[in-house]
Amino acid sequence: SLAAADIAHTLHPNTNLRLHEKNGPLVIARGDGIHVYDDRGKEYIEGLAGLWSVGVGFSEKRLADVAYKQMLKLPYYHTFSSKGHEPSIRLAEKLAEMTPEPLTRAFFTSSGSEANDTIVKMVWYMNNALGRPKKKKFLSRIKGYHGITIAAGSLTGLPVNHKDFDLPAIPVHHLTCPHFYRFGTEGESEADFTARLLAELEAVILSEGADTIAALIGEPLIAAGGVLPPPVGYWEGVERICRANDILLVADEVICGFGRLGTPFGCQKYGFTPDIMTLSKQITSSYMPLAAIMLSEPIYQVIADNSEKLGIFGHGFTASGHPVATAVALENLAIMEERDLFGNAARLEGVFQAGLRSFADHPLVGEARGTGLIGAVELVADKPTRRPFAKVGRAGQIASAIGHEEGLIFRAIGDQLALCPPMIITEDEVGELMARMDRTLERLT
Ligand code: PLP
Description:
The structure is a single chain. By secondary structure, the protein is an alpha/beta fold. It folds into two domains: about 1-55 and about 340-445, Aspartate Aminotransferase, domain 1 (Alpha-Beta Complex); about 65-340, Aspartate Aminotransferase, domain 2. It has helices spanning about 1-10, 15-25, 50, 60-75, 85-100, 110-130, 150-155, 180-185, 190-210, 235-245, 265-270, 295-310, 325-340, 340-355, 395-405, 425-445; strands at about 30, 35-40, 45, 105-110, 135-140, 170-175, 215-220, 250, 275-280, 290-295, 365-370, 375-380, 410, 410-415, 415-420. The strands form three sheets. The protein has a seven-stranded mixed sheet, with helices on both faces. Strands 1-2-3-13 form a four-stranded mixed sheet. A four-stranded antiparallel sheet has the order 11-12-15-14. A hairpin with a 2-residue loop joins strand 1 and strand 2. The radius of gyration is 22 Å and the shape is globular. The two termini are about 35 Å apart. Pyridoxal-5'-phosphate (PLP) binds near residues 252 and 255.
């Protein structure tokens, strides 16, 4: 059977492999709108849009048509040595138009991890070119997620992505996670918490030396670490401190970008302007693998000068700007615009967040949180003290299995149950998703 072949031959990413050998895979056979169907025909609401990414849903024929046509016309060409092709040029132009003002240049990779690895290298390259070889450290946050390759995985602030992989492997300092519920202290207000985080940032810069710190990277809202909206005033403060110390600000918008938070980009929700931005996932609704790095013009200019000095900018991937992936991205962004899917996320924010917040009364829910069309409920052993379960992740696993029975797929991040449905979801479908979540939580008690 398919399940037996999977158990015999696949090493699944991000999986407890021994448990997988026991339980076998959930084989998804097809998709339709916000739904997917397993190989036995059972229907699920895909409450996480795959991996936070299938914005236009699972049956957008226009993307299949564009990919097919592009494959017939020019299935592959590269972008090395001044070569180009229309889809990647048009997408770079489109992204420069869509993203906030200072971002003018696009560099393409196939994944968010490669993009963040590339950003580290670009920033190092830039600072070497500027004669500041010491300015190389990155600041990141505990529970931030930036991917799993050597540099990106180092920026990630989750123990499971570091332990026994010998990460971090680049100079990175992880700052306190900006999640008030878990990292706020007894009696501290949210404003005090923000002030403490900003004081920490200033203290780290002072002790390490601003001349050694190149950049701070962060997701506007930490997503894969548990859907953690930042405290009020956090990003404005971080931006102010970075500017004062000549530290670049990198917004990792791999999940927050393209309308997820109810604004086109997450940085706009929280009122800051990055020097560099990482984009992926909803850029193609994950129909094709693609990521983009957006750079401000001054950064580009330094890199360009150095490429002339050294002969070339010696970095790039076989699939950088892949024509099928970039053609699909252009069509996907056109669909999002035509159907006003960013607006849909903003319009449904109220009903989606109210649905989530209604679970806060449940005896095992410590916090129900989120913004736009993304959210999570955090399960705890004891509500008043916020005490987590002794065996972290067990309750999440049980909830996930019940969710499947109820026809709902969400992501259990430890004991945090994350929701991030396709951006095409309707109000009625949000109601149905919440009803399935409600039944799942009821059965958990
Ligand atoms: N950055 C963020 C914010 C992400 O959420 C992810 C993936 O979830 C990545 C980077 C890494 O992307 P990829 O899995 O495509 O390497």
